[in-house]
Design brief:
The complex is a heterodimer of chains A (about 500) and B (about 450). Chain A starts with a helix and ends in an 8-residue tail after the last helix. In chain A, helix 6 runs antiparallel to helix 7, helix 14 packs antiparallel against helix 18 and helix 17 crosses helix 19. Chain A folds into two domains: about 230 residues, no CATH class; about 230 residues, no CATH class. Chain A has a two-stranded antiparallel sheet with strand order 1-2. Chain A has about 500 residues and is an all-alpha fold. With about 450 residues, chain B is mainly α. Chain B has one domain. Chain B is about 75% helix and about 0% strand. Chain B contains 18 helices and no strands. In chain B, helix 12 runs antiparallel to helix 17. The longest helix of chain B has about 30 residues. Classes of the chains: A mainly alpha (about 500), B mainly alpha (about 450).
Chain lengths: ~500, ~450
């Protein structure tokens, strides 16, 4: 039952927010709603662990073979937790940012959260599709309504891109539905659908493209840097911290166990695409002068490694991906907060125009360096745990013959990440001050709190990742059983 | 039968009402009351209460499907009256006659949705078409309106000729006009005569529902006609055409589906392509809606292609979702001074409520989940997948993605572009209330479609 609440609270909170005319009140209301959602999510991890608390099912569109079923287990729990944690952080970090018609902005923000929670918990394919779009539409309105100068064409491209891919996914889902034994959209029935190998290939690509666009995997990534650049920072944080996880999540839940054979046989192709994307994005990131674009490309590289690992289909790989989804969400939000601070103070995001801030703003410098280390996955930061598990997973993969090559190339990306991240840190914080950065002041309390929370999460899960591993452990075993491709492998 | 007789009588009453009633307000109220009475009679007939027992010699059958569709058509017409009847005053002086013509069209709907004999189909189509020719030309001093009327009439007369020829050929092959009694199952080949008649019926029906490549009249007619009547023509009338199309092909030609299904699939694909691609390049919202109606017709063609239970359920839902959304958008469009996309710049700032409801209707037309438009498209896709055309379905959704482009252009103009939108006519609170109700209904049907579809069965 409580799983319904973590979806309903942001949904209703968002709808109410449309009617709050005072900007300040709307902001406080949104923050309050996000805290309540966080409280409920934490409660599912601690107090309400019984199965009937974590699952909810109700009659809905029975004549279409669909029901309103939500379930919170393993990976879903982790991603819901991430969503719940990041929202208050995002709101604190952007507390000073002014929006015209703020109530609408916050309402859309909360509706997106409801959509995300729904995507991560839905165990019915049609419901999943509903939530998928519910998350997308408010995001489009936010980016297009409150974004930068070129926002209208850029976010439109983003929308058309994702929408086209998602309608293809819809066909894939309906197609699987027709093949299910009991004509149902339920996840369990999907796992039991029997399809010939050639059908599986079709369905695989229909589904995969939707998720690949969302993540994004090379060559479906072209919408992403522009959209990140033009969206308002709060929306960018939600996009990169949370929405890209929908793609990875979708692969793990709705692709691999449903079309096992096709996922195995196309695995090498997809992994090659992913690894190309990783290297390509890293190299582009090195060239960037615009801070937002740099982080956008860095995100493509990180997500690429996740996509690579997903198709390696090993236990440690899956666990690594799930943990890394959580950690990447935390880390990239930290980076965006820094971008927001810099942009608000100096009115520019160009690395070439910044420099020498460290002396004037020591707190900001310290916090950024920690987040930057996490972005390179240094030991003691949370990202190290995830990356280590992922590399371990790729290396030990049975399903691909090129595991060593893939591991090596993915490993190269860490070096490249060090190059662009440290370059960024150096250009912003060290070197000579210029007229623009001379009057730098340090960060305010709310920003310290937000960044402090991020840094805390980085260290806690870097040193003690056990809770995250515990959440995903049983789920991963079940997942591997559902995928079950051992009979295909030549030993 | 209730609806047929009542709407015919209402038409006559409206025709003569101008002799006795001088005030336009009273005429409008009379029309609303008559339509409400028809609606009530329709609901009663669905519940099994008939006012008239007339022997139609098996030429018509009033089953739930037919009755539910007439209910939807009447309800959408009522919505049209509520939102736009006041704007009909601006078209010309024959205010009561416009209502009379619309009531005659409603009588035609009952024929086309409940026919069993091909003769009734023909009568129904003509009863719908002739008043439409007049309505299209009702703005007498406007050259474009005249052009629209003449074009519509010539093209319509041509397609009527085709239809009659088709009916004659089918009669020649089978010896009967009754669609359910044509015992041609396709075993041992289909007679050439029958096939030729089928083709002619297919072409003439495609004509009536403006499916490509028989759509060329549509943009000019819709654009030239007075906007109030375009709203009616492009929605309820088109849906009625599809109901007739579906019935005809399911009853008469369902057994030999293998023979014609590829042709219908091609027509559907061509309609989707032409409608969507051309709509992208329009600068006027009115013309965009004309092409959008062609594009939506392409989706409805999927129902004719698949002819299964999903197709029937889906077409009912589609008729409701599409009509509600398009009538409402037109109702707002009529109030605008400038019909181009740029005319809507900054509309959200001036009329936040209207803009909000328009977004719901546009999302519904684009087929975004949580709206009735999504589920009706979903039904069509599923029906076509059961019908065995994966390629057609994939093509259809790609075209649906294209449609997002032009529907969202309007949203962008309203919300994200600066400007002063020019509303000519004041909007009343009642108008706003009706629009908000319809937006709510669109979302409600998008979440609980069974509210409507269960009426087909219980």
């Amino acid at each position: 039952m409580i799983v319904l609440l973590i979806f309903l609270v942001p949904l209703l909170g968002g709808i109410i927010s449309f009617f709050i005319s005072n900007d300040k009140a709307a902001r406080i209301w949104t923050f309050f709603v996000s805290l309540v959602t966080l409280a409920f999510t934490i409660a599912t991890l601690t107090t309400f662990k019984a199965a009937n608390d974590l699952q909810f099912s109700a009659e809905w569109m029975g004549n279409l073979g669909s029901s309103f079923s939500l379930s919170l287990e393993g990976m879903s729990q982790l991603l819901c937790l991430l969503t719940a944690v990041l929202y208050p952080v995002i709101l604190i970090a952007t507390w000073k940012t002014n929006y015209r018609k703020a109530n609408n902005f916050f309402a859309l923000l909360l509706l997106t959260q409801a959509g995300l929670m729904g995507v991560f918990t839905a165990t019915d394919a049609l419901l999943f599709y509903f939530f998928w779009e519910l998350a997308l539409i408010p995001m489009y309105f936010m980016s297009s309504g409150w974004g930068g100068e070129r926002r209208i064409p850029v976010t439109f491209k983003f929308f058309i891109y994702t929408f086209s891919a998602s309608v293809l996914m819809l066909i894939g889902l309906i197609y699987v539905y027709i093949q299910t034994p009991d004509q149902s959209f339920a996840l369990e029935s999907f796992y039991n659908a029997t399809m010939s190998t050639s059908t599986q290939s079709w369905v695989f690509w229909l589904l995969f493209v939707a998720f690949a666009v969302k993540m994004p995997v090379f060559p479906f990534h072209t919408w992403q840097p522009d959209t990140y650049e033009q969206s308002p920072t709060a929306a960018t944080m939600v996009l990169s911290g949370l929405m890209v996880k929908m793609g990875v999540f979708g692969l793990i839940r709705w692709v691999l166990p449903v079309v096992q054979v096709a996922a195995y046989s196309w695995g090498d192709v997809v992994m090659s695409l992913a690894v190309i994307g990783v290297i390509y994005a890293s190299i582009i990131a090195i060239q960037q002068d615009d801070l937002k674009r740099l982080i956008a490309y860095s995100s493509i590289a990180h997500i690429g490694i996740m996509a690579l690992t997903v198709f390696a289909e090993t236990k440690s790989g899956f666990q690594g991906v799930m943990i890394q989804m959580f950690n990447h969400g935390v880390n990239i939000t930290g980076l965006w907060i820094v971008v927001e601070l810099i942009e608000r103070q100096f009115g520019t995001r160009k690395l070439s125009q910044l420099g020498g801030i460290a002396q004037k703003a020591p707190a900001l410098a310290t916090l950024l360096v920690i987040v930057a280390f996490a972005n390179i996955s240094l030991p003691l930061t949370n990202a190290f745990v995830g990356e280590f598990l992922m590399f371990n997973g790729i290396w030990n993969s049975d399903v691909t013959k090129y595991n060593i090559l893939f591991t090596a190339l993915a490993g190269l990306s860490i070096i490249l990440a060090a190059v662009y991240t440290l370059n960024m840190v150096q250009k912003i914080f060290f070197g000579v001050t210029n007229p623009l950065t001379e009057k730098t002041y340090d960060i305010a309390l709310n920003e310290r709190v937000a960044l402090g929370a991020i840094v805390l999460l980085i260290f806690v899960f870097g040193v003690y990742p056990q809770p995250l591993l515990n959440i995903t452990d049983g789920f991963t075993d079940k997942l591997l059983k559902d995928i079950n491709i051992n009979h295909l492998l030549v030993k | 039968m209730n609806v047929l007789i009542l709407s015919a009588i209402s038409g006559v009453i409206m025709m003569f009402s101008s002799f006795f009633i001088k005030s336009k307000g009273s005429i409008r109220i009379l029309a609303h009351v008559l339509l409400l009475a028809i609606l009530a009679a329709n609901v009663l007939e669905l519940e099994g209460i008939r006012f008239f027992e007339i022997d139609t010699s098996g030429m018509m059958v009033f089953n739930r499907f037919a009755l539910l569709f007439t209910l939807i058509a009447n309800a959408c017409t009522f919505l049209f009256f509520l939102l736009s009847s006041k704007d009909m005053e601006r078209v010309g002086i024959n205010y009561s006659d416009y209502f009379a013509l619309i009531f005659f069209i409603l009588a035609g709907f009952t024929l086309t949705s409940s026919f069993v004999s091909l003769l009734i189909l023909f009568l129904g189509i003509e009863i719908i078409s002739i008043p439409l020719y007049i309505l299209a030309g009702s703005d007498k001093r406007n050259l474009k309106s005249n052009e629209a009327s003449l074009k519509y009439f010539l093209m319509g007369a041509f397609s009527t000729g085709l239809m009659l020829m088709g009916i004659a050929l089918v009669y020649g092959a089978t010896g009967t006009f009754t669609t359910t009694a044509m015992s041609i199952t396709g075993e041992g080949g289909v007679p050439v005569l029958f096939m030729a008649g089928l083709m002619m019926l297919l072409f003439s029906m495609s004509f009536k529902v403006s499916a490509a490549p028989f759509h060329f009249w549509t943009p000019d007619v819709y654009d030239g006609s007075p906007t109030v009547f375009t709203s009616f023509m492009s929605t309820v009338v088109k849906a009625a055409g599809f109901i007739a199309f579906l019935r005809l092909f399911a009853d008469a030609f369902g057994d030999i589906r293998e023979e014609w299904k590829i042709l219908v699939a091609i027509i559907a694909a061509a309609t989707l392509f032409v409608g969507n691609i051309t709509a992208v390049f329009q600068q006027s919202v009115k013309r965009m809606l004309a092409y959008s109606s062609i594009a939506q017709a392409g989706f409805m063609m999927l129902a004719v292609y698949s002819l299964n239970a999903d197709a029937r359920d889906g077409l009912i839902l589609y008729a409701a979702a599409y009509s509600i959304a398009t009538i409402s958008i037109f109702a707002v469009l009529i109030k605008m001074g400038d019909y181009t996309f740029d005319g809507f710049n900054g509309f959200a700032r001036q009329q936040p409520l209207l803009a909000g409801t328009l977004v719901v209707f546009l999302l519904s037309l684009a087929g975004i989940p949580l709206t009735a438009g999504f589920l009706s498209k979903f039904y069509m896709l599923r029906a076509a997948l059961y019908g065995g055309a994966v390629w057609l379905v994939i093509f259809a959704v790609i075209m649906a993605a294209v449609s997002v482009y032009y529907y969202f252009r309007l949203i962008q103009a309203m919300y994200f572009k600066e400007g002063v939108a020019d509303t000519v006519i004041e909007v009343t609170p009642g108008f706003k209330f009706a629009l908000v109700t319809m937006a709510g209904l669109t979302i409600l049907l998008g979440v609980y479609p069974s509210l409507l579809i269960n009426w087909l069965y219980f």
